[in-house]
Design brief:
Layout lengths: L4 E5 L6 H12 L2 E4 H9 L3 H24 L5 E4 L8 H10 L1 E6 L2 H10 L14 H19 L2 E4 L4 H14 L4
Parallel strand pairs: 1-3, 1-4, 2-3, 4-5
Helix pairs in contact: 1-7, 2-3, 4-6, 5-6
Length: 176
Amino acid sequence: MQTRRIYLIGPRASGKTTVGKALADTLGWRFTDTDEMVVRGAGCAVGDIVERGGWKAFRDMESAALRAVSGEHEVVIATGGGMVLREENRDLMRATGLVVLLTASAEALAVRLQADPQHAQRPSLTGKSIEEEVAEVLRERAPYYAAAAHLIEDAARPVDEIVASVMRELENGENP
């Protein structure tokens, strides 16, 4: 197995943290979350970061977290939903690890976001309803997710099936 880090990308509520922790346990690797890194570094929630400095400040911090973790080995990294918006982030992930995109329908993501107790910590990106926002964000980001991903997984599948699929991809060893 050549790959030393796995990046999980996808929209909010696609299961990056859940799948990431399960994958890290299976591999015996460490798990980290770039949003958590940003929050720890800033000492406040994502919403507070955005309120104080705007989305650009948050995206700068997010990119710095990615750069920091991209040099580590044997790590599974859950990235923020917007990590793919910057070309340098997409390029860095593709060059330094296996990039797995977790996909789900806008409807499924909206249901998950409404049920998520951390929803209040995730500021709206558009000011629209959850359903409208999720659909709009998915449309806008789809090309970026596709450009970054080595592997695409349906997040509606059971976690153990997704982990098994990623493990098969790793065994093929065709990715960085």
